[in-house]
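Bit of a strange request maybe. I'm writing a small parser for structure token strings and I need a real example to test against, not something I typed by hand. Could someone generate the tokens for this chain?
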Amino acid sequence: MKRGYGQYCPLALAAELLCERWTLLIVSRVIDGCTQFNQIHRGVPRISPSLLAKRLDQLVRSGLLVRRPATKERAARYALTQAGQDLEPIIEHLAVWGQHWARDMTEDDLDPGFLLWSMHARLDTSRMPPGRTVIEFEFDGAPKDCRRFWLVHEDGVVDMCLKHPGYDIDVKVVSDLRRFIEAWRGFRDLRAEIRARRILLFGLPSLVRQLPDWLSLSSLAVHSRKLQGRERKLSTQQRKSGDSAFQEFEPRI
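Reply from user aminoacidic:
Good idea to test on real output. This should exercise your parser:
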């Protein structure tokens, strides 16, 4: 069975390459700054390593990525070619369209590993205290073997950890996974959820109060939801709440 569309149309030819499963997400991760295999895999955690290797090889052969061989100092790296760089505004516009019009999330879409990767890339380290800060996340509703995650910030560098990093926890966040993702995507008011104890924070009061300032939401959260459904209803309810996001809340210790 032929893989192509059998059309000379440039759109059809582009779709043959870009519409294969995982391809656009992989390119997006490289655009986001992931250059090594393991970094890319963390940004697309549900793809198997073997399939990721296959897709990366396809992207290199198609001229969207270039692979720089490993050296004694570092692992092999991937970089965008001019063709790959030209995809950046296209992928950004497609993501905005998805925030507006893609289907509502289902339970199967609630990937805590991808959420952690997204958050680690969005921490505003300029607003965090000097030294090391460790944030633990515990998500109800996630599979039992992947409910706890950690972000470790030190000197402007943020690491995501799937196992306990071995340091004392400064702030712990406990939340239902769907509720937190809905807040992350801008459908719920993060501060209002914390104030109402639907998202719980534990730790020193001074650090707990700062956490919403550290955690920049998804870059797409500023775009309104347009598709009728649960997520638009949540967004509408949040807008009606006015300036509740800026009211003070008492931390849970």
